[in-house]
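Trying the structure run again after the queue cleared.
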Amino acid sequence: MKNIFLLVIITLLLFSSCDSPTEFIDNIVPGRRDYNWTVDTLDAPDNFYYGMWGSSPTDVWTVSASNWEKSIYHFNGDNWVSSQVIGLFGLKGLCGFSADNIYVGADNGAIWRFNGNTWNLSVKLKKEGTDYFVIQNIWGESPNDIYVVGGSPDSIGGFNNSVIAHFLNNKWTMLNTDDIIGIVGNLFKNNFDSNIYLNTYRVGNGLYYDSTLIYEYKQGILKQLYSSVWTKGTQSDLSLIDGEVYFVLGNRIAIRRNNQFQTVLNVNNPNFYQRIWGRNSKDIFLLMTDGLVHYNGNDLEYLFYFKVTPATQIYGAALFPKEAFFLVYEAQTRQKLIYHGKLD
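Done. Tokens:
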């Protein structure tokens, strides 16, 4: 997201008051910025890592879409240790519910599960009309309510045929995605309105502009809410922060209220790279082309600058009350770095 960056939303908690029953009280404490940062390098020059999840600061995972010999890295509190599982490759989606219940998706539609000791094949999904699709992401509210998203090849050479699979009541179901287009990047349920929101990336392959789109899934109906050109400065994205879906609409960050986008922040910094993660509305992290910025509900401040620019990005984050992990990729050096911040 989804996912840490950004701005505060007027996510205000409503408290009952005998004197003022309609009074809103914002009791969210602004996130701290006094991190002590260390940087670890993953010893995997031929791998590309995408996504991060952890049950605690001593149990953090990231997975690779490349070389299977180092397709998984795990942080045990002291070191990052790589592992390999035969058949487990082309990984992107990563979602967990506890240290002994973690799911990862592969490029061949396979879902693998970690039980605390070993990775085992859970299911190999298939979509009617195609022999192959890639899994881009996994998200779920519980082990019995999981969504898998991705795409399958189309006639112009892109993965524009959207794929959404839903695991509910011990059964996998492929949702009808005829009304959307593009590989699905993220899907989250918004606690505020109980609607499902998802974003797709549509590859034009020279026939039209590459684009990013946002959809709402409500009562079995998919509805397009937003579309933009897929390039830095205009692209769209989603992030789930404290149970609320945040929409990145170019340089605008918004939430959804009464079927309308409500602006949380307009990011005036031209270096904003349309990706955010956060703990709550006053503790949001924004990806910039030159580093990581923090929003505390009042203003923006850099937490660190990248050592190499341009083309350095963050492809995942794992946030805990007093620690934060960011998965950083330096395109120029091909280094895969973990920025690890701690609060005293």
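The mean pLDDT is 90. Worth checking whether this holds up in the mutant runs.
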